């Protein structure tokens, strides 16, 4: 047993006591970040290289600061994105919906599919699509000025790491309700992970104290932004264009009916996340 592995075991116990959901994993990821190694290389760190800044970062995590704010990075599909105060940390659940969109765009018989990502935050969805569907043109909309700074930073970061994404993602600052008028009836796919938590619902400290309020709260039933997206997507999508919208696990049925046939939607479907819970709805414009 090396010194670092001993310290990781103590840190994991401390994080568990503080109520952190995945204490051992978080302790290992902090250790890997502080020592500049991969997680699998932790047993190879010599005792005399132990960096005591490990304990500063464990203390931050024990105070329920999100791991991604401590390391400054969030992983999303094949991307690593910069995150921190003022921007929503992208979640694993959203990767499944993004994968659905990437598959549909890949098989779409359109030379350069036009995509709108409504409420882009870090740019996770928009940039993953640009990276994995190089012929797509992605319009990313964000109302929160601080979040928009993170989007810009990640657009530049991705362009450096994956030059084929350069110029493929355009940030539009403002409310998605009135955005992208120049693209009315021209968009092939609208995607969004909007704020959808019902007002007053309990959220863990990592969420309530660190994710921006504009990214979380969706009104009394949590569906205010999703109803707004239904209206925007009806305006933006071309005939047979596709929509994907994320929602909370108990909202599957309610969101299904937002995209009802009488409002001009076809092929409305519920989809599950990796834990088998309802997580996003897709539909086609009739
Ligand atoms: C849950 S976060 C999702 C961020 C990112 N798409 C992701 O999946 O990680 C929702 C984002 O929508 C933005 N937002 C909320 N309401 C908006 C509106 N009316 N117009 C534009 N952006 C909005 C928030 O600022 C936030 O960045």
Report on the structure:
The protein is an alpha/beta fold and 286 residues long. It is built from ten helices and nine strands. It has helices spanning 3-17, 23-35, 53-62, 67-71, 92-107, 124-132, 145-161, 205-208, 224-236, 252-258; strands spanning 73-76, 79-82, 114-118, 137-142, 169-173, 187-192, 237-246, 265-272, 278-285. It has a seven-stranded mixed sheet, sandwiched between helices. The chain has a two-stranded antiparallel sheet with strand order 1-2. Helix 7 (145-161) links the parallel strand 4 and strand 5 (169-173). Helix 1 (3-17) packs parallel to helix 3. The longest helix is centred in the middle third of the chain and has 17 residues, at 145-161. It is globular, with a radius of gyration of 20 Å. The site of S-adenosylmethionine has 23 residues, from helix 6 and strand 4.
